[in-house]
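Standup notes
- HV: blocked on the assembly model, inputs below
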Amino acid sequence: MMSSVPSSDKKSKLLVYSIEECPVDGQKTKRAFQVGDYVTKDGAKCTKCGNQTRVSLVFAESSRPSG
Amino acid sequence: MSLISTIALQVPFDSSSLVTLVWVGFFMLSFIYGTRIQSYFALNDIGRGLNKLKVMKDKSRKEAIDYLVNVGKSPGDPTQRVDQFLDYVTIMPVDIDPQGLVGKIDHVVTTDNDRVRQEVSKLVSQTNPVTVSISENLLEVATSLNMIHKIVRHFYLLGKKTNSYFTLIQLQMLMPMIIQEADALLNAVDSFKVGQPVGDGIGPVVVSKYMVGKEKRVVAKDTVMAISEYKGRKLYMLKADGPMAYVGQPGVAIRKVVEEMGVKPSAIIMIDAALKLEGEKTGEIAEGVGAAIGGIGVEKFQIEEVATHNKVPLYAILVKQSILEAITVMRKEIAEASEKVVVVLNRLIEEKTKEGDDVLVAGIGNTLGVAQ
């Protein structure tokens, strides 16, 4: 008889990123998530205009390309 | 010589008769012992699931203890207190006389939430609210998994003891869903530990975009508000206080803003995560009317009461996701939906209100990793 209990080991690994966005020119930089990151936290200086960026999103995406 | 032997001697023996006899025997066996055989397989199946649940329960308990010791800098060994915490029960009020029931549930739930925070603050020496809130969430996950394991074990043993076919079969049918939910809870631990926003936090993410740089004020327990502006409308933006793992009290907050602060909103717009149906895409946006908020129903009741009493239309913007996606680190599709939600929200404000109006916007959900 087939088991009805699903296996939970079929997931692909998730990589978590933080997006730093410049509030002035909208330049977005994607980098790996660091512990302590949160949405609206101050990020690095904008590479384009030198203004203070802000973490606008933190998200995970699969390491395996979706298809 | 007996009659049967006489008949047997008269019937000519061949191999096809033997096959027929075996088939008849097998049929009789299935007919008489079929449910017993199925019960045996069901017991095996449930047993495997139960072992899996036990591993999950133990892992979440260990993760909570490790977090309390390593990050929360627990002053002593928290193991015994954690074990007591896992078995703590919340007794819901009697519902045979439903009048005033929501108030009673609210009272019990508020007492429980306060108790959890008090317990956790004794277990950690850290005063950082993010650490305390994460500890609360980790203990709640461990409590939920402990309860799931106990209930499944109860019915497994009951079915085994009473040899109840129907108890076992029902439990066997539910096991895949139970395991899926338990798996989602266990996966949530990894996100909570490092303070990553979860899928349920999409409402707070959207609202935080309007609150950045504005003056914030606390309007209810763990709930903050800021005033923003959009095309001549005054926006009262509400969310739980982040980046702590709080859900706040949006019901109390909305009532306070409308009834105590004297704001007369032309619309209340609620943004929340919604469980998708199988086949729906993660990050899909749905619009609707009504109070978009989950939970036990107390907050929803309070919001509906305020809206009805003051004749304020309630609008909802929902972002679809699965239960796993809602309580684990926010997926890309959900995060990217935040920009689309802003577009929908702005359109809704333009369509449903006019210049000079007040609009109340509430971002509902766990605001872990989402400040304002």
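- HV (later): unblocked. Chain B has a mean pLDDT of 93. Residues 42-194 of chain B form one domain.
- Next: hand off to the docking folks.
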